[in-house]
Amino acid sequence: MDISPLQKARYEYKPKLPKMLRVGVEGIAVQEGDKTEAASDKEKISELFPNTYGMKEVYFVDGESTAEKKKHVIGVILSGGQAPGGHNVIAGLYDAMKEDNVESVLLGFKGGPSGILDDNYITLTGETIDKYRNTGGFDMIGSGRTKLETEEQFKIAAEVAKKHNMDAIVIIGGDDSNTNAAVLAEYFKANNVPVQVIGCPKTIDGDLKNDDIEISFGFDTATKTYSELIGNVERDANSAKKYWHFIKLMGRSASHIALECALQTHPNICLISEEVEKKGMGLNAIADYIADSVMARASLGFNFGVVIVPEGLIEFVPEVKKLIEEINETLAKHGERFTKLPTWDEKLGFLTAALSVESMKVFNLLPLDIQEELLMDRDPHGNVQVSRIETEKLLSNIVRNRLNQRKQEGKYNGKFSPMHHFFGYEGRAAFPSNFDADYCYSLGYTAFLLISYGYTGYLSSVRGLAKGVDEWKAGGMPITKMMDIERRGGEDKPVIKKALVDLEGKPFQYFEKHRELWARETAFSSPGAIQYFGPSEIADKTTITLALENE
After folding, report:
1. What is the longest distance spanned by two Cα atoms in the chain?
2. Choosing from 167, 205, 212, 438, which is the catalytic residue?
3. pLDDT tens digits for range 161-204
């Protein structure tokens, strides 16, 4: 198959390792820090994870390795949605493993966690790895969303591991996938299964982060990809001067993507779900906020603009959030019965009996298509699939009604022609930026170090990411440190706590300082395409969010 010159060049790119890792596995020692506690719900988490709770943080330092030298057989799984850089995690893991012992074996389980349950795998060789270095997507072994959460599944995983003489499993995934990794590690430990479990922090949403995980891999590439597209739309809007573009961006539970893209592109409006919830802004208040910008720009002769909408916004609007929670609970208990109802009227009758009066009022105010989208099949966690809800169209419709009302009152005489976009899949499998290529390779390398020193239930961690690669520091963090209890599918379950946008943090404060000007003026910024070559300050530049957080 012919490949493009860029693809060939990316295959040949040599990811930069932190200075501390360049000495090779023989020259890397380990230090342990303090014992850890869960993010919240400490007592419950400690009861659920008696064998893996309270473990110490781990730091790798210069020094002679004391890890046992042996042949490793390691399984690797890509779990959840794609994120740029996943292939480089596998490449870093493979290279470190082979550097330690050339006889070690890496098994790639195909199609996500179901691969280990079905014993569906390929033996990854250097030839295979070389075909995927520095490329986007998860097509080396595929991904999937099967949850490893039942004792029956754990037993099967243990049997497959024993069959292949595996001593470790690396799960590359987001918060839910790494929650599964923590549960699997606990099961293995409790049942004396001699298999370690290590996770790697993946999600373009950016909500898998804390002091130890400064950024999840894929966020850098995805936000740069979306920002290029938004910048292009802004250029077009400023050229045609006749459309208001409503752009929905991926990011279900947090608005990190929307905020980063706003910092890069300066749209007229960027809604931040966390702020909407804190201020208790209903749909009408949000519509008024956007309509005010439309009117202000119209008064300057600008009947065009750009509005960024986070994918999960609808769940943060107080009255809609309550409605969704009640629908989720109802369908978790009676979903099969509900889906068998033959007519829409019968389904409405069922909901009227099941939901509170207040929530049913909100439901009846929504357009029919949004009502239907709220009742679609749930995701694997029992929640509404917000990516299917066309929030951008809902908002533009309400804004149009608001503007028509103001026009009738003689307060507005501009034009409002909305266009709609959803940028999501466009960024999930892009060629990873140099930052993500380097970061992911280091995460994979570090995952092997954790395995070589015998750790389990840990997340591979690389810190100091706002600095140059030379200064990055590698280590590991117990997954239970990030966990709390959350309501899922009508039950309380241990999960990794999602990191939402900090409204007191520097990235949001910078945005808040400038957004009034952006709402009125045409201050668009076009960051352009991701740069892979050239000066480090351009080719290796990371996100504005990370830079501001580390000022």
Report:
1. 80
2. 205
3. 999 999 999 999 999 999 999 999 999 999 999 999 999 999 99
Domains of the chain: 30-218+432-488 (3.40.50.450), 220-311+390-427+499-551 (3.40.50.460), 312-387 (1.10.10.480)
- Residue 58: beta bridge partners? 32, 476
Within 8 A by CB and 6+ apart from 289, the residues are 269, 281
Query: What's the pLDDT tens digit per position in 12-61?
Result: 999 999 999 999 999 999 999 999 999 899 999 999 999 999 999 999 99
Q: How many CB atoms lie within 10 A of CB 347?
A: 16
Task: Say how far apart CA 108 and CA 127 lie, in whole Å.
Answer: 14
Long-range contacts, stretch 233-237, CB < 8 angstroms, 24+ apart: 233/306, 233/421, 234/265, 234/267, 234/306, 234/524, 234/525, 234/526, 235/524, 235/526, 237/304, 237/305, 237/306, 237/524
Q: Give the tokens for residue 453.
A: 């020193």
Q: pLDDT value at position 380?
A: 61
Catalytic site includes residue 205:
yes
From first CA to last CA, the distance across the chain in angstroms is: 46
| Residue 332: Cβ-neighbour burial (10 angstroms; 0-12, 13-18, 19+) | middle
d(CA 312, CA 389): 9
Residue written as tokens 């580390």?
550
Encoded tokens for 38: 């869960």
Residues 49-101: tens digit of each pLDDT: 999 999 999 999 999 999 999 999 999 999 999 999 999 999 999 999 999 99
Radius of gyration of the chain (CA): 24
Sign of CA dihedral 263, 384, 173, 182: positive
Categorize the per-residue pLDDT at 299 as very low, low, confident or very high, splitting at 50, 70 and 90. very high
- Residue 248: its H or E element: strand 244-249
pTM of the model: 0.92
